[in-house]
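Researcher: Quick sanity check before group meeting.
Model: Go ahead. Protein one:
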Amino acid sequence: GHDPVNDQYKILCTIVIASDLLRSLKSEHWVFVLEAGGSWKKVVTHENYHHPHAPFTLGRSISSGSVIRYMAWRDNYNCEVVCFDVRSEEITTILVPRTFGLYVSIPVTQMKADIIEYGGKIAIFEHSHLKDGGVPEIWVFEKEWSRNKILVVQPCQRHLVHDVELLFKGTTQDGRVILAPLKLSCRFYILFYDLQSNDLRKVEIQGIPEFWFDKECCYIDLRSMDESESESVIYLET
């Protein structure tokens, strides 16, 4: 993230030690300033920050001003939004209520949810039951969490998500959610989900060698980058 006051770029690293199913969890946070001769410094947690956490394994972060936000597990049945102020290096959290989601009994480690911006606000896109029910949810945080929208995929587009294991891969600049299949099929593609119009668009990715599709178990990763990010390369002297 970027500290606009001191014009510094910083990296946040979270180290987690956890037992099976997160029954026991310890975490600590370190910050590295991207500058010549920079070094790691341990973050002193905020007085309102009480619980260790494990960031979502395949999660992403969003930035607003000098604050970076991401989702994390507090334990097997509780998750939260973690807020890191790049300038002050303070960490605070927003607990996601256990009533979150249509199916409140599923462990958070099995949920498919991630943080997005929706209408200029912090929100969570939850799609645990997209492949079997075609029903994702959007929860928005203002002073508290509220279920803003329950979407139902249009019948003519259900085949795009039915029985397909999809991963959340971020959002476009105009707010469309990007979903990608976990495994390679005969053709690799991504889905753009317009949350306002409830419309799915499928885009095939060309040029992947055919022999990859013959593998019994093949996974592929996808990273999105907007034009401003591609031009923001920082060179450091070592």
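Researcher: Fine. The other one?
Model: Protein two, sequence then structure:
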Amino acid sequence: MQNLLQIWQGLDGRKRFVVLGATVAMFLAVLMMSRMAGTPGMSLLYAGLDSSAAGDVIAALDQKGVTYEVRGQAIYVEDSQRDSLRMTLAAEGLPANSGTGYELLDSLSGFGTTAQMFDAAYWRAKEGELSRTILSNPQIRAARVHIAQAPSQPFQRDVKPSASVTITSVGGSLPAVQAKALRHLIAASVPGMTPDEVAVIDSVAGLIASDADQAAPNVAADTKAAEIKQNVERLLSARVGPGKAVVEVSVDVITDAEQISERRFDPQSRVAIATDNTQQSGSSTQPGSDVTVASNLPANQPAAGGTGKSENSETREKVNYEVSETNRQLIKTPGAVRKISVAVLVDGVPITATDGTISMQPRPDDELAVLRELVTSAAGLDTARGDVLTLKSLVFEPLPQPGDAITPPMFSFGEINLMTLIQTGVLALVTLILGLFVIRPVLTSAGRRQALPAPTATLALPGSAQSDATRVLTGEIDDSPDLPPLSVVSGVPGAEGAKDPMSRLRQLIEERQTESVEILRGWMEVEEEVR
């Protein structure tokens, strides 16, 4: 404890602050880890349920006293209870947003069930099973499937079944790829149904067009372009000849569907639908003198000429007009032509010179103007719509005659593949490097070893008669024959001879000093040449 106090007193203010901060941080980390260790892990139970289905699941969890968490549109429970809760809720029929499947047929009994009742129950079960399969996709929140199957009747042609599916996706609209998959899923589940007979309706994007609907405008554009091209080529061939004109047509069509609702009022074109005339007139008489008490007495009546008379007249006229109203609803379907572009290239005309040579020249402008008017009429071009026509006259290159083989030049290498050329260059470079830095040093060192001169002096060692004639000293220790045992008499009594090789070698050198000197001189000369 005293050591800790001494260490603490030896620290300055900044170091004490760091120590306190580290201690508090470690304490908080331990506290959080213990809290996390004591809290059970939560796993996803259900997600993407309808409001009613999610409410039923939560009510069932409350009844069972299960701890759960709601995070957005997902319900989480403890890891240890997730699987058992799913089985328990499934036994209770929760969640109930998947509809009723083939279990609907279990309630049908053989007695009292007509063929119409069984067919209706069967198709209801089929729709429920398809809805369950579609809801297995995590990106789809709700789905309803409706199948229209005509009953089989005698003396009636087969009617193809059709179906429609309403989708509510989790986020945004359903992609076209998944809509195509749903068409094939439903069509494969109903006998005799094709994917084109299935309509996929998204709650956000509406009807999702099929591949055939999307490709229909493009097919119509290609068909119209081919028709215009054929008409123009037939028209030009009558003037310039077959194969003397090249025509290319591009048709730009509208691929978007548009619906316009318009309500227009015209105040200038009004019509009177009701008229109300009111006329009022009246008259009144007034005395000429002032009204007093005396004038009201019978004996004091005023004279007749002293009275005044007034008349008034009022006329009113009310006219109700109906304004002209026009309601217009315009629906534009895909396939309308937006723009047509036509390009025409016409061959030139042959002109004979004074010397008899024939040359090709472009056609005159007057003829091109006439051809331009003809092509405009044949293609149905409209300048107000923005249609474009390009008509030019150029000299065509002569085509090779049949049977004329095209001979390549003398030094032609044919088609050169760039990748093959690169691979050949890399292989040649690797071969050159191996030859310069690997094979050449090996051959040089081997040649030097073979060029070493043999010593001039040869020394025959004692031995057998045939070995003396053939064995010669070459200056190498390994090439020398085994030395014969020497009979050396040692000074030690009882010893037959020295068995030490070094002592034997010394004795041999002492006996043959001249030969030993020649051998040593040969070794020294070889070492100098090697250096």
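Researcher: One line on it for the slide.
Model: Residues 454-481, 485-498 have pLDDT under 50 and may be disordered.
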